[in-house]
């Protein structure tokens, strides 16, 4: 149990309180291993909808739960959802049903866990105490939130009632004034019919407003009373839960921030000819009052549902208040079979809802249905609009319509989907993208069978389905066109839904049809009607436009990602004496390109330059500026300039690009022979150094100003870089977010690096790849406000015993002396097999150096994973190969070097050049 191998590390032993919990832990880990999902990836894919509490556990708590500590059934279902997202519903239910007995046994009769053969404390007692504490804490948090919501709603309803009461008095006075004015106009001989008609219209409008104000005033009082009872109930629950928790352990009551209220303004009194303006103000105030009461009503209902409170179970007296027309009611299990009329399904309203219009009783149902339809469509389109890619948008459509609008939905999309203005592929082919349906026991009759998403469904020109798609508008499945088109989507061998129990709704984007959605209802609920066609049309229109945008966004994101990858190094070099690892994360899915970059550039003398930079912004412009600065840095570092000189010239280049082109940059040069590192900084966060003993410190480097400011001198500092130490360079996106400032983040980074070192022990430094991954875990899902770059460098160094260095005078005898020195050194290193090739190559390069040098020539041998020889002189002319004629006595040296050496090259350095070659070490 708990010994399955992970890609990077083994599972920790299960720590459940009973055998059944440990078996559950084993099953969850098997799912994760089978799906190749890490704990961190699981944390990123979890959403609040997976948990009843609506809160995703943090990474540390999630790891504990996956070890058996405080494991919840919500997490078991969430792991199944993440590991098997495309699994059919019956298969997923069967998978969970196999684990349900273990969970039930763990809650009722758990098997005690024994240690060393001795029985432990009965597991059921531990489980009961643990579950009681967890449940009480969860209930307390939920009830406190419900209390705050209901108290806020009570205050809002009280404010609305106060405003409406004052407004009602003003309106009644206005009714009396308009009545007197109308009587005067009717009694005057010179009054025109137009004036009388206008006065009558104003009076009727004022009377309707007065009646509406009375209704809304009654509703506000009812909402106030309901909120008061919910708050009282919550207060009693809070006291009971606090008493229960006080017995288990002491707790601190969490605070909360009340929701912001909406203030209503009483319109000023009207005078003179401002009657219409006054009436308009009353209408505006009424609309605002309805919005406030609707919002607070829903908030109180949700709070009451969270606590399990209802009017029938409340100890207080029954209240029958009035509510606004069209107010939706939550009732019963919405997943069950539907048998009520359509007005009692999607458009059901609160009972005892009085009319507020004098147009007759028939208009009330119309208003209710129209209002509820708008509410449903508004909520559904908001859910659809939250999607960023095709799968999220289609999932939003399915989850918004099943079971609220239909019992089942099929969504077909064109394959392949055309992008933008490009010409779509021919012929027209549909691929099933997603199916959502009720569970089999909840269906009220025959529904369409399961479809294979891998099967493509061509749409022949002139077919019934092609005509439906060409018509664009949704139609009922019972129509002639619908009956002919449904077999193309559901299969000709299966019976069609009875009557109008299907809707075919083509998905039309900006320019063309890109798919079709099929809504189905079972026999247990009423058929679709023409009003449902309007709802379906709005849903598929929003979905199609969102899909169009998602396809365009996907192409732009792909281009941006490719541009970003092209500007960053595809792989890091592996120079001698140093190991490197890196990570790059864009700011978020909505900003896949930014201005962060990194690079590692080998330098003469086995040195390596380590560069990290950050251009301000996350746009294509920032990426373009980053590309120019990155190229400039590569060029300047290649000239073997000091780090501070590199930043000084980079600052000039940034100024040439524009006055607002600023970036931070950090340039470091590591010398594995001298075991030192020279760092210069331009407004970049300081690096973190992990010492071989496990101590982590933030290096004190000159802060500097960002490049692009202009007129700033940059300083450099030389620090010891002991073998085995690790340097961590990064950009500010890793340590700075909306939740913490940059210095707090740097300290958290230092502590995390030190903690990673403690896990591996003082004698073993953590691997660079694991260290980069562990550091990235400190960034939460909501902290990704900026790009993140990490460049980790392990200083292996080159031991003094593996380095030999000499200085040769520029005389003709120097090549011979160089050959003798190389032969003697290789014999001491046990590399006699390389002596002949090394002597010949050294002789050729030293001869060329002596020929042009005016000062002493340097010769250095380094033994790492290969034999490296470096010859430096004060001549700035790099060697160039040429074809020698048969009679020439020179010009063949570089051809010999190229033929015998595995690698060779030449580079400019300060005051001259260095020519080097490498030979592979002989195998043992």
3D architecture notes:
The protein is of the alpha+beta class. It is 45% helix and 15% strand. The protein is built from 20 helices and 23 strands. It has a six-stranded antiparallel β-sheet, sandwiched between helices. A five-stranded antiparallel β-sheet has the order 9-18-17-14-15, covered by helices on one side. Strands 10-11-12-13-16 form a five-stranded antiparallel β-sheet, with helices on one face. Helix 6 runs antiparallel to helix 7, helix 6 runs antiparallel to helix 8 (275-307) and helix 19 (835-852) packs antiparallel against helix 20. The protein starts with 18 loop residues before the first helix and ends with a strand.
Rg over C-alpha atoms, rounded to the nearest angstrom: 38 Å
Order of strands, widest sheet: 5-4-3-8-7-6
Integer average pLDDT: 77
Question: How far is the first residue's CA from the last residue's CA?
Answer: 42 Å
Main beta-sheet annotation:
6 strands, antiparallel
Amount of helix: 40-55%
Task: Enumerate the spans where pLDDT stays under 50 for 5 or more consecutive residues.
Answer: 1-8, 115-124, 250-273, 313-367, 443-449
**What overall form do the CA principal axes indicate?**
elongated
Task: Report strand %.
Answer: 15-25%
Number of strands: 23
Q: If helices are DSSP runs of H or I spanning 4 or more residues, what is the number of helices?
A: 20
Judged by helices, strands and strand pairing, the structural class is: alpha+beta
